[in-house]
Amino acid sequence: MTDTPCGAHCARLCTRDGLAAMLAADHGLLHWRAMRSLGDRGLAEHAVQETLLRGWRACGVFDDRKGTVRAWLSTIERHVLIDIARARAARPGDVGWDDITELPVCGGPDFAEGVIDGLLVEHLLALLPEPQRAAVVEVILRDRGYREVAADFGIPVGTVKTRVHYALRSLRQLPDVA
Question: Where in the sequence is the domain holding 114, given as residue range(s)?
Protein backbone atom coordinates (compact mmCIF):
# COMPACT_ATOMS: atom_id res chain seq x y z
CA MET A 1 0.00 0.00 0.00
CA THR A 2 1.38 3.40 -0.96
CA ASP A 3 0.83 6.87 0.44
CA THR A 4 0.19 8.49 -2.96
CA PRO A 5 -2.80 8.03 -5.26
CA CYS A 6 -2.24 5.81 -8.29
CA GLY A 7 -3.77 8.05 -10.97
CA ALA A 8 -5.78 11.11 -11.91
CA HIS A 9 -9.11 9.52 -10.95
CA CYS A 10 -7.82 7.19 -8.25
CA ALA A 11 -10.36 5.79 -5.77
CA ARG A 12 -7.68 6.25 -3.04
CA LEU A 13 -8.11 2.66 -1.87
CA CYS A 14 -4.39 2.27 -2.50
CA THR A 15 -3.58 4.75 0.29
CA ARG A 16 -3.78 4.17 4.03
CA ASP A 17 -5.93 7.26 4.60
CA GLY A 18 -8.22 6.51 1.68
CA LEU A 19 -8.74 2.90 2.70
CA ALA A 20 -9.32 3.88 6.35
CA ALA A 21 -11.88 6.51 5.32
CA MET A 22 -13.71 4.04 3.08
CA LEU A 23 -13.76 1.39 5.80
CA ALA A 24 -15.12 3.86 8.35
CA ALA A 25 -17.84 5.05 5.99
CA ASP A 26 -18.84 1.99 3.97
CA HIS A 27 -17.69 -1.30 5.56
CA GLY A 28 -20.96 -1.69 7.49
CA LEU A 29 -23.06 -1.12 4.37
CA LEU A 30 -21.00 -3.60 2.33
CA HIS A 31 -21.26 -6.22 5.07
CA TRP A 32 -24.99 -5.64 5.56
CA ARG A 33 -25.68 -6.10 1.84
CA ALA A 34 -23.55 -9.25 1.73
CA MET A 35 -25.32 -10.72 4.79
CA ARG A 36 -28.70 -9.88 3.30
CA SER A 37 -27.78 -11.54 0.02
CA LEU A 38 -25.89 -14.58 1.31
CA GLY A 39 -27.34 -15.21 4.77
CA ASP A 40 -24.01 -16.51 6.06
CA ARG A 41 -21.55 -14.50 8.18
CA GLY A 42 -18.45 -16.24 6.87
CA LEU A 43 -19.47 -15.85 3.24
CA ALA A 44 -20.50 -12.24 3.85
CA GLU A 45 -17.10 -11.37 5.30
CA HIS A 46 -15.44 -13.20 2.39
CA ALA A 47 -17.57 -11.15 -0.04
CA VAL A 48 -16.56 -7.87 1.61
CA GLN A 49 -12.87 -8.84 1.57
CA GLU A 50 -13.11 -9.87 -2.09
CA THR A 51 -14.87 -6.59 -2.90
CA LEU A 52 -12.12 -4.58 -1.22
CA LEU A 53 -9.41 -6.63 -2.91
CA ARG A 54 -10.96 -6.10 -6.34
CA GLY A 55 -11.42 -2.40 -5.58
CA TRP A 56 -7.80 -2.10 -4.45
CA ARG A 57 -6.55 -3.85 -7.58
CA ALA A 58 -8.67 -1.62 -9.85
CA CYS A 59 -8.10 1.57 -7.83
CA GLY A 60 -6.28 3.31 -10.67
CA VAL A 61 -9.08 2.79 -13.20
CA PHE A 62 -11.80 4.31 -11.00
CA ASP A 63 -13.44 7.25 -12.77
CA ASP A 64 -14.97 9.80 -10.39
CA ARG A 65 -16.82 11.37 -13.32
CA LYS A 66 -19.04 8.27 -13.44
CA GLY A 67 -19.98 8.16 -9.76
CA THR A 68 -18.80 7.90 -6.19
CA VAL A 69 -16.41 5.37 -4.69
CA ARG A 70 -19.36 3.99 -2.66
CA ALA A 71 -21.40 3.35 -5.83
CA TRP A 72 -18.35 1.85 -7.55
CA LEU A 73 -17.69 -0.50 -4.62
CA SER A 74 -21.38 -1.44 -4.50
CA THR A 75 -21.17 -2.45 -8.14
CA ILE A 76 -18.04 -4.49 -7.48
CA GLU A 77 -19.78 -6.12 -4.51
CA ARG A 78 -22.82 -6.95 -6.63
CA HIS A 79 -20.54 -8.81 -9.06
CA VAL A 80 -18.81 -10.60 -6.15
CA LEU A 81 -22.19 -11.66 -4.71
CA ILE A 82 -23.29 -12.95 -8.11
CA ASP A 83 -20.04 -14.93 -8.41
CA ILE A 84 -20.53 -16.44 -4.95
CA ALA A 85 -24.19 -17.29 -5.65
CA ARG A 86 -23.23 -18.98 -8.92
CA ALA A 87 -20.48 -20.96 -7.21
CA ARG A 88 -22.91 -22.08 -4.48
CA ALA A 89 -25.46 -23.10 -7.10
CA ALA A 90 -22.83 -25.13 -8.96
CA ARG A 91 -21.93 -26.94 -5.71
CA PRO A 92 -25.21 -27.29 -3.83
CA GLY A 93 -23.66 -29.68 -1.31
CA ASP A 94 -21.47 -26.90 0.11
CA VAL A 95 -22.24 -25.88 3.64
CA GLY A 96 -21.72 -22.40 5.08
CA TRP A 97 -19.67 -21.77 8.23
CA ASP A 98 -22.79 -21.02 10.23
CA ASP A 99 -24.24 -24.41 9.29
CA ILE A 100 -21.39 -26.40 10.85
CA THR A 101 -22.81 -26.62 14.38
CA GLU A 102 -25.18 -28.69 16.40
CA LEU A 103 -28.84 -28.36 15.56
CA PRO A 104 -29.98 -25.00 16.91
CA VAL A 105 -32.50 -24.75 19.72
CA CYS A 106 -35.36 -22.28 18.98
CA GLY A 107 -33.67 -20.93 15.88
CA GLY A 108 -30.21 -20.59 17.42
CA PRO A 109 -28.07 -17.48 17.88
CA ASP A 110 -28.43 -16.38 14.25
CA PHE A 111 -32.18 -16.03 14.73
CA ALA A 112 -31.71 -13.99 17.91
CA GLU A 113 -29.05 -11.79 16.32
CA GLY A 114 -31.36 -11.18 13.37
CA VAL A 115 -34.15 -10.08 15.69
CA ILE A 116 -31.78 -7.82 17.64
CA ASP A 117 -30.37 -6.33 14.43
CA GLY A 118 -33.91 -5.68 13.21
CA LEU A 119 -34.85 -3.96 16.46
CA LEU A 120 -31.67 -1.86 16.34
CA VAL A 121 -32.38 -0.75 12.77
CA GLU A 122 -35.96 0.07 13.73
CA HIS A 123 -34.73 2.12 16.70
CA LEU A 124 -32.17 4.02 14.62
CA LEU A 125 -34.70 4.77 11.89
CA ALA A 126 -37.10 6.13 14.51
CA LEU A 127 -34.47 8.76 15.38
CA LEU A 128 -34.64 10.24 11.87
CA PRO A 129 -37.15 12.82 10.64
CA GLU A 130 -39.92 11.19 8.57
CA PRO A 131 -38.72 12.44 5.12
CA GLN A 132 -35.20 11.12 5.76
CA ARG A 133 -36.50 7.85 7.23
CA ALA A 134 -38.73 7.22 4.20
CA ALA A 135 -35.85 7.91 1.79
CA VAL A 136 -33.46 5.60 3.70
CA VAL A 137 -36.01 2.79 3.88
CA GLU A 138 -36.63 2.92 0.14
CA VAL A 139 -33.07 3.50 -1.11
CA ILE A 140 -31.00 1.53 1.42
CA LEU A 141 -33.25 -1.13 2.93
CA ARG A 142 -35.37 -1.85 -0.14
CA ASP A 143 -32.40 -1.26 -2.49
CA ARG A 144 -34.34 0.94 -4.91
CA GLY A 145 -32.83 3.52 -7.24
CA TYR A 146 -32.93 7.21 -6.43
CA ARG A 147 -34.89 8.02 -9.60
CA GLU A 148 -37.51 5.40 -8.87
CA VAL A 149 -37.95 6.65 -5.30
CA ALA A 150 -38.08 10.28 -6.44
CA ALA A 151 -40.80 9.43 -8.95
CA ASP A 152 -42.81 7.63 -6.27
CA PHE A 153 -42.42 10.52 -3.82
CA GLY A 154 -43.04 13.16 -6.50
CA ILE A 155 -39.85 15.06 -5.63
CA PRO A 156 -36.56 15.74 -7.46
CA VAL A 157 -33.85 13.07 -7.46
CA GLY A 158 -31.47 15.48 -5.75
CA THR A 159 -33.87 15.84 -2.84
CA VAL A 160 -33.93 12.07 -2.30
CA LYS A 161 -30.11 11.95 -2.44
CA THR A 162 -29.87 14.81 0.04
CA ARG A 163 -32.28 13.15 2.46
CA VAL A 164 -30.35 9.88 2.35
CA HIS A 165 -27.03 11.69 2.71
CA TYR A 166 -28.09 13.67 5.78
CA ALA A 167 -29.80 10.66 7.35
CA LEU A 168 -26.68 8.51 7.03
CA ARG A 169 -24.51 11.36 8.27
CA SER A 170 -26.76 11.73 11.33
CA LEU A 171 -26.62 8.00 12.04
CA ARG A 172 -22.81 7.92 11.70
CA GLN A 173 -22.52 10.65 14.33
CA LEU A 174 -24.43 8.63 16.92
CA PRO A 175 -22.33 6.92 19.60
CA ASP A 176 -21.62 3.25 18.99
CA VAL A 177 -24.63 1.20 20.05
CA ALA A 178 -22.99 -2.20 19.85
Answer: 102-171
**Which CATH number fits the domain that encloses residue 58?**
1.10.1740.10
Q: Are residues 58 and 34 both part of a single domain? A: yes
Burial of 65 (0-12, 13-18, 19+ CB in 10 A): exposed
For residue range 56-99, what is the model confidence (pLDDT) as tens digits?
888 888 777 787 888 888 888 999 988 888 887 777 665 555 55
Largest CA distance in the chain: 55
Name 2's bridge partners. 15
Q: Does the residue 6 lie in any domain? A: no
Q: How many CB atoms lie within 10 A of CB 44?
A: 24
Query: DSSP of 101-154, one letter per residue?
Result: SSPPSTTHHHHHHHHHHHHHHHHHHHTS-HHHHHHHIIIIIS---HHHHHHHHT
